Amino acid sequence: LDNIGINWYITNALQLKGEFSITQKRTKYKNFIHPDSQKNTLAQKNSNNEMIENLTGELYKRNSESTTWNTNILLAYNESINKHNINFTAGVNAIGKSTEQTSIRYRGFTSGQFNSPSFAKEVVEKPSEIVEKSRLVGFLSSLNYTYDYIYLFDASFRVDGSSEFGK
Questions:
Q1: CA-CA 20 to 30 A from 3: which of 25, 83, 114, 139?
Q2: What would the pLDDT profile of 28-87 be if each residue is shown by its tens digit?
Protein backbone atom coordinates (compact mmCIF):
# COMPACT_ATOMS: atom_id res chain seq x y z
CA LEU A 1 0.00 0.00 0.00
CA ASP A 2 1.48 3.31 -1.08
CA ASN A 3 0.00 6.79 -0.60
CA ILE A 4 1.17 10.21 -1.68
CA GLY A 5 -0.45 13.59 -1.29
CA ILE A 6 0.37 17.21 -1.97
CA ASN A 7 -1.20 20.48 -0.84
CA TRP A 8 -0.61 23.72 -2.72
CA TYR A 9 -1.77 26.90 -1.03
CA ILE A 10 -2.19 29.12 -4.07
CA THR A 11 -3.45 32.02 -1.94
CA ASN A 12 -4.65 32.30 1.65
CA ALA A 13 -8.16 31.44 0.45
CA LEU A 14 -7.43 29.00 -2.39
CA GLN A 15 -5.93 25.53 -2.00
CA LEU A 16 -5.28 22.69 -4.45
CA LYS A 17 -5.00 19.21 -2.97
CA GLY A 18 -3.96 16.04 -4.77
CA GLU A 19 -3.84 12.46 -3.47
CA PHE A 20 -2.86 9.15 -5.04
CA SER A 21 -2.82 5.68 -3.52
CA ILE A 22 -2.14 2.24 -4.88
CA THR A 23 -2.80 -1.09 -3.17
CA GLN A 24 -1.48 -4.38 -4.45
CA LYS A 25 -2.44 -7.72 -2.96
CA ARG A 26 -1.19 -11.20 -3.83
CA THR A 27 -2.71 -14.35 -2.33
CA LYS A 28 -1.51 -17.93 -2.69
CA TYR A 29 -3.72 -20.63 -1.24
CA LYS A 30 -2.84 -24.32 -1.14
CA ASN A 31 -4.89 -27.04 0.56
CA PHE A 32 -3.61 -30.63 0.48
CA ILE A 33 -5.67 -33.51 1.86
CA HIS A 34 -3.44 -36.45 2.71
CA PRO A 35 -4.45 -39.78 1.06
CA ASP A 36 -4.87 -41.39 4.52
CA SER A 37 -7.02 -38.54 5.85
CA GLN A 38 -10.57 -39.20 7.08
CA LYS A 39 -11.66 -36.30 4.85
CA ASN A 40 -11.24 -38.46 1.75
CA THR A 41 -14.63 -39.82 0.71
CA LEU A 42 -13.78 -41.26 -2.68
CA ALA A 43 -11.91 -44.47 -3.36
CA GLN A 44 -10.25 -45.27 -6.65
CA LYS A 45 -11.50 -48.07 -8.91
CA ASN A 46 -9.43 -50.52 -10.93
CA SER A 47 -10.03 -51.47 -14.58
CA ASN A 48 -12.79 -53.94 -13.54
CA ASN A 49 -14.63 -51.13 -11.76
CA GLU A 50 -13.88 -52.68 -8.36
CA MET A 51 -13.10 -50.48 -5.39
CA ILE A 52 -9.44 -50.49 -4.43
CA GLU A 53 -7.33 -48.73 -1.84
CA ASN A 54 -8.20 -45.12 -1.08
CA LEU A 55 -5.61 -43.17 -3.10
CA THR A 56 -7.53 -39.95 -3.34
CA GLY A 57 -5.27 -37.36 -1.79
CA GLU A 58 -6.39 -33.99 -3.13
CA LEU A 59 -4.67 -30.68 -3.78
CA TYR A 60 -6.52 -27.41 -4.30
CA LYS A 61 -4.55 -24.35 -5.41
CA ARG A 62 -5.75 -20.79 -5.87
CA ASN A 63 -3.66 -17.75 -6.74
CA SER A 64 -5.00 -14.24 -6.97
CA GLU A 65 -3.57 -10.81 -7.58
CA SER A 66 -5.36 -7.51 -7.31
CA THR A 67 -4.35 -3.90 -7.85
CA THR A 68 -6.42 -0.89 -6.85
CA TRP A 69 -5.51 2.74 -7.43
CA ASN A 70 -7.35 5.82 -6.24
CA THR A 71 -6.75 9.48 -7.03
CA ASN A 72 -8.42 12.68 -5.86
CA ILE A 73 -7.88 16.25 -6.97
CA LEU A 74 -9.71 18.97 -5.05
CA LEU A 75 -9.76 22.74 -5.41
CA ALA A 76 -11.03 24.51 -2.27
CA TYR A 77 -11.91 28.15 -1.76
CA ASN A 78 -12.62 29.51 1.73
CA GLU A 79 -13.11 33.25 2.26
CA SER A 80 -14.73 35.52 4.83
CA ILE A 81 -15.65 39.01 3.62
CA ASN A 82 -17.42 41.20 6.18
CA LYS A 83 -20.55 39.22 7.12
CA HIS A 84 -20.22 36.77 4.21
CA ASN A 85 -18.52 33.35 4.52
CA ILE A 86 -18.01 31.34 1.35
CA ASN A 87 -16.73 27.78 1.12
CA PHE A 88 -16.53 26.17 -2.31
CA THR A 89 -14.97 22.85 -3.26
CA ALA A 90 -14.71 21.20 -6.68
CA GLY A 91 -12.92 18.00 -7.49
CA VAL A 92 -12.35 14.85 -9.47
CA ASN A 93 -12.12 11.30 -8.13
CA ALA A 94 -10.93 8.29 -10.13
CA ILE A 95 -10.61 4.65 -9.06
CA GLY A 96 -9.34 1.62 -10.95
CA LYS A 97 -9.50 -2.03 -9.85
CA SER A 98 -7.99 -5.08 -11.51
CA THR A 99 -8.22 -8.66 -10.19
CA GLU A 100 -6.99 -11.95 -11.64
CA GLN A 101 -7.61 -15.31 -9.98
CA THR A 102 -6.82 -18.87 -11.05
CA SER A 103 -7.76 -22.10 -9.32
CA ILE A 104 -7.28 -25.79 -9.98
CA ARG A 105 -7.98 -29.07 -8.15
CA TYR A 106 -5.88 -32.24 -8.44
CA ARG A 107 -6.69 -35.75 -7.15
CA GLY A 108 -5.00 -39.13 -6.87
CA PHE A 109 -1.90 -38.68 -4.75
CA THR A 110 -0.49 -41.99 -3.53
CA SER A 111 1.60 -40.46 -0.79
CA GLY A 112 1.50 -37.36 1.35
CA GLN A 113 5.20 -36.84 0.67
CA PHE A 114 4.59 -36.40 -3.04
CA ASN A 115 2.05 -33.59 -3.03
CA SER A 116 3.23 -31.66 -6.09
CA PRO A 117 0.74 -31.38 -9.00
CA SER A 118 3.12 -33.49 -11.11
CA PHE A 119 2.34 -36.52 -8.85
CA ALA A 120 -1.45 -36.24 -9.21
CA LYS A 121 -3.37 -38.89 -11.13
CA GLU A 122 -5.87 -36.42 -12.56
CA VAL A 123 -7.07 -32.85 -12.71
CA VAL A 124 -10.50 -33.05 -11.09
CA GLU A 125 -12.12 -30.01 -12.61
CA LYS A 126 -11.22 -27.74 -15.43
CA PRO A 127 -8.87 -24.97 -14.23
CA SER A 128 -10.75 -21.71 -13.77
CA GLU A 129 -9.65 -18.16 -14.29
CA ILE A 130 -11.46 -15.00 -13.27
CA VAL A 131 -10.41 -11.59 -14.60
CA GLU A 132 -12.22 -8.48 -13.39
CA LYS A 133 -11.50 -4.85 -14.22
CA SER A 134 -13.44 -1.76 -13.30
CA ARG A 135 -13.03 1.99 -13.47
CA LEU A 136 -14.86 4.88 -11.84
CA VAL A 137 -14.62 8.61 -12.51
CA GLY A 138 -16.56 11.10 -10.43
CA PHE A 139 -16.93 14.86 -10.42
CA LEU A 140 -18.07 16.70 -7.32
CA SER A 141 -18.66 20.17 -5.98
CA SER A 142 -20.11 21.76 -2.89
CA LEU A 143 -20.98 25.32 -1.94
CA ASN A 144 -21.60 26.63 1.57
CA TYR A 145 -22.63 30.23 2.09
CA THR A 146 -23.30 31.94 5.41
CA TYR A 147 -24.53 35.49 5.96
CA ASP A 148 -23.98 36.97 9.40
CA TYR A 149 -23.69 33.43 10.85
CA ILE A 150 -27.50 33.23 10.74
CA TYR A 151 -28.57 32.53 7.18
CA LEU A 152 -27.16 29.41 5.55
CA PHE A 153 -27.17 28.02 2.05
CA ASP A 154 -25.70 24.63 1.13
CA ALA A 155 -25.57 22.94 -2.26
CA SER A 156 -23.72 19.87 -3.44
CA PHE A 157 -23.38 17.97 -6.68
CA ARG A 158 -21.75 14.69 -7.65
CA VAL A 159 -21.88 12.64 -10.81
CA ASP A 160 -20.15 9.28 -11.32
CA GLY A 161 -19.47 7.12 -14.31
CA SER A 162 -18.34 3.53 -13.78
CA SER A 163 -17.83 0.39 -15.79
CA GLU A 164 -19.77 -1.43 -13.03
CA PHE A 165 -22.97 0.54 -13.69
CA GLY A 166 -23.61 -1.08 -17.08
CA LYS A 167 -25.22 0.77 -19.98
A1: 139
A2: 999 888 887 766 655 555 556 655 555 578 889 999 999 999 999 999 999 999 999 999
State how far Cα 77 lies from the chain centre. 33
CA angle 94, 67, 21 (to 5 degrees): 50
pTM over 0.85: no
Query: DSSP letter string over 112-144?
Result: SS--SGGG-SEEEEEEEEEEEEEEEEEEEEEEE
Distance CA 78, CA 12 (A): 8
Report the candidate in 17, 18, 21, 4 with the shortest Cα–Cα distance to residue 96: 21
- Core vs surface per residue 112-141: b (16+ CB within 10 A) or e: eeebeeeebeeebeeeeeeeeeeebeeebe
Question: What spatial distance separates the first Cα and last Cα of the chain, rounded to whole Å?
Answer: 32
